[in-house]
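Revision sheet: structure tokens.
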Amino acid sequence: MNAGSVEQDRPSQPVKSGRGAAVLMLAALFAGLVLGILAIRLGDGIKEPLVQAAALIGGLWLDALKMTVVPLIVALLVVGIVGGADAAKAGGLATRAVVWFLLFYVFSATFGAVMTPALLSVFPLPQEAAQALQAGLASVDQSVTATAVPKVADFFKSIIPTNPVAAAANDQILPLVFFTAVFAFALARVVPERRATALGFFEAVGDAMLLVIGWVLWLAPIGVFALAFAVGAGAGGSALGAVAHYVVILSALGVIITLLGFVIAVVFARFSPGQFLRAMTGPTAVSLSTRSSLASLPAMLTAAAELGIEQRKADVVLPLAVALFRATGPAMNIGVALYVAHWLGVEISWTGYAAGIAVAAMASIGAVSLPGQISFVTSIAPISLALGVPIEPLALLIAVETIPDTFRTWGNVVMDVAVTGAVSRDEDGQQG
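Predicted:
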């Protein structure tokens, strides 16, 4: 779900998306923006009907994506939590790894919630561009937001849903995620035969939703073009600069998370900086060229050997990390939602931040490792809903996800090796 992480792994899934599709989507974005900007010169009599038609087409395409959000997050969260619980039962090493993953998910989500506003305060989107974008997005229906974020005491009361079905129907994501997590932990304790039956159902639901997303994305160039045209016609040339600003901010966030991986490698795994940097040359090259943690696994195992990590430990932790751990996901996903809030001038309360952090951390447990364009909306929409931020602008940002996705994968690969070293060192300390 990376945009949890949002990478191109999960080979068991029938949904695929190549670089050609990403390039075509990116071309549709810029073509729509440019033609929308040019349409301003046509006058309102011609421009407005075109904008209305484009907004309608783009809105229908976005609705098709949005309809997969709730069933997909429930299915993937159940599968992810049960899988993590099963892995933890496999032994002490796996348990330590899973604990590391869960703790870092919370840290990553919190870090993203703090660092994104900090980056935007240092490198803000020009006020003129923000206002122009708000005007451009006015033609796109932004009615789908979370129920008003409750205040203090009501916030804590709202975490536990009295009716999970109603929570799902009303886009109350935090209580839905809470219920799903409790259900998944309970399912993990059910006898294996019955657990396997239920787990198979949720795996099938997740696979079916991913297929639906794949079908919808066949029409992505049309939907992205239409939405971009409407925004370009309303925002003018500012739209192009705003898209570039978004890519820089989000990519910077991914780079910072990657640097934290180096810190973990030095402080917790006790590798020398030069040793870790040399060992990560191969995995870095593979991750940046493939945008796939799975494809980087052989290079990561080689790096682990060069760093002196015992093979038996690397053979357990690294595959587990590729399957369950997407370190950049919570930070970058909540970063996208907060950037949209910045675009639109949406004020986020502390309870909203708390809800967003919780959903970002929990959703990453079941994040699907597929190309960024496939999982972008379904990974970030739940966070946006928890924050009370409109999700419609995500349909534009999906087209440029290829660039931030590269940094997502690089950060995940660096963090996988660093945490493997830290877990290995921790086990040595326990045994010592």
